[in-house]
Amino acid sequence: MTGENADEGTTDDGARERAAPGIADALKELGDTGRATWAAGREAATAFRILFTADVSLARSAFGRTLALTALAIVFGASAWLLLMAALIAWLSINLGWAWWFSLLLTGGASLVIAALAGWLGMRYFEHTRFKATRRQLARLGIGELADMMPSAGSGKSAEQGAEEVAEKTNGGAKKKGLGVDVTPP
């Protein structure tokens, strides 16, 4: 080092030398890192709470719609449908000359088809009560029965891609837990 460079605290190549940090600086950095980690954890918890609340809202809405469709099916099945079928049975028997038993059988079969269709439409909404998004995110954190099937939180895959891969691997069938109980797919 030359006399000029010694006064400025630089080396011959022009880089400034950095003094080793003291314990106070290290503790300050550790505290800053801890606060940043705490803030990130708080943000993640807030995001998860929002996701869970949205999932509960979707499930509640789907359950309400299911009840409404079921009630609608019962009301129409019990009142208007009976009157329409009675009128149809009378018309088939009197105007077309069909036997009463055949008219009753035909209208009864039509009633069963309509009731099955209404029940199927009502059951479709139960799919929204499975908390799929929440379960996928919990599985990424290693929590729950899906944890071994889903990508970890540090992977680049989305939880939805992981769920699709699980569906492909199981060919749409249910995966079994240790005791042979079906695991609801994500």
Describe this protein's structure.
The protein has 186 residues and is mainly alpha-helical. Helix content is 66%, strand content 2%. The chain contains six helices and two strands; from the N terminus they run H-H-H-H-H-H-E-E. It has a two-stranded antiparallel ribbon with strand order 1-2. A hairpin with a 5-residue loop joins strand 1 (175-176) and strand 2 (182-183). Helix 2 (23-78) packs antiparallel against helix 5. The protein starts with a helix and ends with a strand. The chain crosses the membrane at residues 67-92, 98-122. This is Phage holin family protein.
Task: Itemize the secondary structure elements and their pairings.
Layout: H1 3-8, H2 23-78, H3 80-94, H4 100-124, H5 132-140, H6 159-169, E1 175-176, E2 182-183
Antiparallel strand pairs: 1-2
Quick overview of this protein structure:
It is built from 6 helices and 2 strands. It is mostly helical and 186 residues long.
Strand content: under 5%
Give the biggest sheet.
Answer: 2 strands, antiparallel
Task: Domain count, please report it.
Answer: 1
Order of helices and strands: HHHHHHEE
The counted number of beta strands is 2
Query: In order across it, which strands form the biggest sheet?
Result: 1-2
Could you report the average pLDDT, rounded to the nearest whole number? 79
Descriptors for this entry?
two-stranded antiparallel ribbon, mainly alpha, rod-shaped, single chain, 186 residues, 2% strand
